[in-house]
Amino acid sequence: MSQFWRLDGPVQTLILAAEQKRLPQVIYWGAPLPASEDCAALAAAHAMDITGGMLDANPELSICPEASQTFPGQPGLICRDAQGRVLRPNFRFSQELTQHNSLCLTYADKELGLTYEAHFELTASSNMLTCWSRLTAMQPLMVNWLAAPVFPATQLSDEMIGFSGRWIGEFQTHAIPWRPGIHKRESRTGRSGHEHFPGLILPEVGARNTTGRAYGFHYGWSGGHQMIAEELPDGRRQIQFGHACDSHNGLAQSFETAKLYAVFSDKGLNGCGTAFQRHLRDHILTFPEASLPRPVHYNCWEAIYFDHDLDSLKDIATRAERLGAERFVLDDGWFGRRDDDSSSLGDWQIDRRKYPNGLDPLIDHVTSLGMQFGLWVEPEMVNPDSDLFRAHPDWILGPKDQLLGRQQMVLDLARKEVITYLYDCISTLLETYNISYLKWDHNRILPLCDVAQTEGIYVLLTRLRAAFPHVEIESCASGGGRIDFGILQHCQRVWLSDSNDALERSHIQHGAALFLPSLVTGSHVGPRLCHTSGRVFDMRYRAWVAAQRHMGFEMDPRELEPQEAQVLTEVTQWYKDNRDWLATADILRLDTADPSVLGEMQLAADGSRFVVFSNQLDSAQQILPRPLCLTALDPEARYSLRLRNRDEASNLSRGAPLLKSQDLQASGAWLMTHGLHLPYAMPASIWVVEGRKL
Fold it and tell me: How far apart are the first and last CA of the chain?
């Protein structure tokens, strides 16, 4: 008996096939197939040969590979009963539920009392497959590992693109060669993490940013997670994502993975990136007022740190508004007796030493300037030196003698009384003050990896969003330590990195563009002397790097010289003039022939306009810039291009390339194949080219 299921979208087809009511395997995932394609014939053609040293049949690489089927690789489920005995399920088909572009398959092992569900949804508008698994049991059991539905990996790829990082160095991309055996990447920090962003890109040989075939994955979970990329001895490959091993602490009867987002692209890495960007923007994010433009931020952290003074903050707010800021965020140091990071986390009451009349005087000043007011909080954490810890030392997660991180511990969000306490504290602030934004921080890793902790923060955020739908929340975790599609079901912005170094930011933003749209990605103009690197960059460079995403400032505006203030004001106005169409634009990474140039293009949803950022990271090996080829344009259409900041050319640019003095008109075909000749650029500078379809 054969069974077949098929999901089709505009740019991809997924076909599942099963024999003898066993778990199905993916027999095809790629470019669209004709509706008339014979699935039975494809299943037959999918069969592989057998040779010496092999079993008499190839164990199927199913959506949950089973050890009971003599599968030679990593199984999709590892579990034990209450007595610790290993269970090896042998699932058989129970039922299916099919709707338009969605599929739920249910399988059971009646002898063990286990039921397995696999869910698949295909969203045509974003070209995204969303998949997850669920396991239920008649008796309590321990699950060590449950994978989301397992995908085969293309054998036409010779490397994977993984994402790693560190504090102030997130979203670093790495080419990882395929090799026999397992490549395992696991985050046990209790958050999605700087170290191992839960994403993977599989380019086929020859694929680049703009061309070729590639497959993308993202596991939308804000806690510990694991990824396995395995090449079997017979050459087949599999990709598994799930919660970190053994992060279900205790016996239970129901287990569910987070959602695994998967995409096929025939337009290179950019096809994966735009699918993730669009799906997050259009199907996951929920804004308090979606029709409003994204406001320009001002955050006071790197201006004052813990040194809060009302008159100084009013002066800073006034100056920030003159520069173009539309939201003022008061960062750490306003509560308890918080003069440094050693105390008061958990005591979410106003520090009357600094604010004897509460926050109203500052908020009234900020709102009188026409700006929104935002506030920093870190609700999941507690300092041992706090009233909360002294009252409830039993509320911490992990052992009492654990190592501290940033002189703090973590509250156990599996406890309902902890969630209630935090909800009451935050809701009191939101009810008392005119607050429209929370910067929600998370400044240490967890002492242990616990699914319940992540589920607890989702519960807390869900309650707050329901009670205060007008409040926007930013996910910050020492910068980019908690960025994923799970947390972004509850938040509307991410703080991509604590690094405001414009050069480092350029690399971080470029890597993150494979998953994140601009409207959710916070990027700020930092101080002249960068606080995390000690480097100094021209205001033009800092401002244009920030304007490529959701723009903000984080320097002390009192330090600005008149020329710097003028440049920042002008670039901020450019951002405001263009943010409406940029909010729904695709971020496209450009292929550059010069490794010293980072090229990016943001293309409007209707294709009518675009902007190109050519970022000269360092000195080039050759004298003059190499041509920069654009992408995703209509080859038959004509475009008009203008070098927006041509007046920034250095005195070393002595020639007369066309864009330096006038607009360029050319076909999309020419722009994509010949490319632009830009003027000579100094290191740490950006050319900004605006284009319109004629």
Answer: 58
Q: Which of 373, 380, 367 is nearest to 415 (CA)?
A: 380
**Residues contacting residue 243 through CB under 8 Å, at least 6 positions apart:** 146, 221, 223, 224, 225, 226, 257, 258, 451
Q: Which residue has the tokens 């040989």?
A: 205
The Cα 319–Cα 546 span in angstroms is 18
Query: Parallel, antiparallel, or unpaired for β 437-440 and 472-475?
Result: parallel
Tell how far CA 613 is from the center of its chain.
Answer: 21
Count the Cβ atoms, other than its own, within 10 Å of residue 190: 27
Known active-site residue 412: no
Which of 205, 195, 254, 204 lies closest to 226, judged by CA? 195
Active-site annotation holds for 315: no
Q: Which of 331, 450, 484, 498 is catalytic?
A: 498
Question: Tens of pLDDT along 229-270?
Answer: 999 999 999 999 999 999 998 999 999 999 999 999 999 999
588 forms beta bridges with 601
- pLDDT of 292 strictly over 90: no
Asked whether 538 and 571 are in contact (CB, 8 A), the reply is: no
* pLDDT tens-place string over residues 98-131: 988 999 999 999 999 999 999 999 999 999 999 9
Q: Over the stretch 20-37, which tens digit does the pLDDT of each residue have?
A: 999 999 999 999 999 999
The Cα–Cα gap between 493 and 667 comes to 37
**Contact at 8 Å (CB) between 167 and 442?**
no
Nearest-angstrom CA–CA distance, 171 and 273: 14
User: Annotated catalytic residue: which of 332, 347, 441, 484?
Assistant: 441
Cα 245 to Cα 226: distance, rounded to the nearest angstrom: 7
∠ Cα 70 75 78 (to 5°): 115
pTM: 0.98
Residue 423: which H helix or E strand, with range?
helix 416-432
145 Rama sector, left if φ>0, alpha if ψ -120 to 50, beta otherwise = beta
How far is residue 188's CA from residue 639's CA, in Å, rounded to a whole number? 49
Q: Burial, 600: exposed, middle or buried (Cβ in 10 Å; 0-12, 13-18, 19+)?
A: buried
Name, in order, each residue with C-beta under 8 angstroms of 352's C-beta and a sequence gap of 6 or more: none
Question: How far are the Cα atoms of 16, 44, 163, 363 from residue 38, in angstroms, in the given order?
Answer: 13, 10, 38, 66
